[in-house]
Amino acid sequence: MSTSQRRSATESGRVALDQAEAVIVDQYTRLVRLAYLTLPHTLSRHQRVLVAHSLVQRALPGFRIGRATPRVPAQRGRPDPAVASVRARVVRSALAHDRRPRGWPGFLPPPRTLRPTLPVVWGLRLFPRAGGGEEIALGQVLSEVPAPARAAFVLLQLEGLSRSEVVELLTAADVPEPEHALRTACDVEAAAGGATAAGATETLLRSREFDACSVQTRPTDLLRRRRRYQLAWVSAGLVALACAVLLTGIWATPPAEPSRTAGIRPAISPAQLLRTPGDTWADTSRVDFTAWPARGARTGDDELINRALATWTDPPRGTRVGVAKATTAEPPPRNTQLLYAGVVGREAVVLFHDGRRVVRYGEPISSRGAASLDITRSDEADVTTAAALVLSRGAGKIRYLTAPWIAEAQTRDLLTPNSPGRPLGVSDEGVTDAVGRPPGKGACDSLPVMQLRSSSKIVEKHAFLVTDLGDLTPAHLSYTPLPGTGAPPRQPREATSSAALRSWARTACQLPEMRGGGVRSVNQWDFAEQDLPEQGGRAVWSCTRASTWRGPGDVLVQFRTSTASATAPAKVVGQARSTAACSRFGQHIVASTPWTAGSGRHYLLAAGSREVTGIEVTGEVEETERGRTLAVKAPKDPGVSVRARLTDGETLDEVGSRPAR
What we know:
By secondary structure, this protein is of the alpha+beta class. The chain is built from 13 helices and 27 strands. Strands 10, 11, 13, 14, 15, 16, 17, 18, 19 and 20 form a ten-stranded mixed sheet that branches. Helix 1 (3-11) packs across helix 8 (163-172), helix 2 packs across helix 5 (81-95) and helix 3 (28-38) packs parallel to helix 5 (81-95). It is globular.
């Protein structure tokens, strides 16, 4: 069936106009919710509410009004054609809202957003009422998937359509790959971390968090609105004067540009922000962002702080907004804390903390450029993960604001483990000198990190490493050494020892691949070592785990030999995403890799963690070996399955493979 045929079948073009109107009136809330959830999350919540209502109100088909046909209840298993028609029009309009036609200039908004449409609200901001933690988590997951996948998810879970009906409707809405959108929608429940367990998804989608018909209102900034109104009259007068002057050949100065946050009233005022006393950090058992005092030369600049809060509440058009993975962008709550307000380079910067997130606002101090807003999760931060925040990035350099308990800062290169750290200047306010940024993906000539030492008032002789992975909070680097004979399991420790630095030097080039993933910490675990066949030296097996603020983590299993140079990148032999492996909840691991000896003979190598008592290989190679390591002659790239036995009798599959049945 062609796209046009499917579209015709889906919309059921013979639906009478009064029937479609009856559907819109009867199911208005449901249709608005569908449009609101499908619309792009680049729109503010106020804009999405208005656009959703507009799309539903324009969903009437453009047919002539004829004699009304009697409405017959839909037969079981067959959808009402009027409902299907209106639903299809709403979905297509929502998906096409931010779609630019071919050849449309990229600097202009999509043509649909340029059309004046009703409803229009002046002087008020509309927001759906806030839901609970599960609703917020689901909303964040939906914001990270494409619009067709969001539409498919809602159609499946809320509208109750079958998969074939969803594919048919998306095809009619000009979605290029409807099957892919459907598969992504099916993955959303798992990505939501259990918040959408069976039977609960529809309840969450029906909650007030996503109800664009039951909204709360908040006025825009009344004083700014009044100034803006006066400025409009002044500007009009200046324009008229300029036109008159132009007629005489004299150029006039253009009127001033309104404030970038004019018309936006922040959720809280600067006077309501929490400000921690400067000596709290040295006399508290909670060493995290709540212990940071408010620092910076402009902490008393209420106009700057008010603009920052207004931008956080509802970013104006043109604001560069960056929201870290699995982080909500909701307005500032009442318990928001001021961390910093000052000038860094050519920007005025404000930092906030609300207990779950850190927020950075920046605006140029000498131009009319765009402001920026960045939001990153920070819940359950500690002495290391709350040790610094990014103040500015630019020209390959970063400036940090360090925690008040940081007594000393150094920089070092992970790829030169034998080189000592270099002192890093820190101002009285805690602002560091410029630090080199880690390279992007695919480049690894050096990998700068920051080595910080805590004050003895917190803990003695405590130094640790952090590095930038794209978020406001730098990631904490740690190290777990090889298991000792008869020793209890070793816990992650700071990556400042010689052994830790040597291990990180071989695996650090994988860090840029973790950029932008909402990473909280990265641990390098050397879980096994092995003598290589034919006197080929020794090999060390490592598991590098990037743990995220939201809980799950990604792991890379790496294999390095003693014959390679001290900084030669280790070989990646396995990987897994969103897993508990290589954490305290996944303490057992087995991995394998092909290896070629100096003689040219090919081997299959395998190794497991401390609880492994035997390794079994099946497939093109059949072998069973007692102990934690295995080496057997094999084809160059054998197709095998590797499984380990543990001390408690359980079996363990290789990292990255499917679970055993």
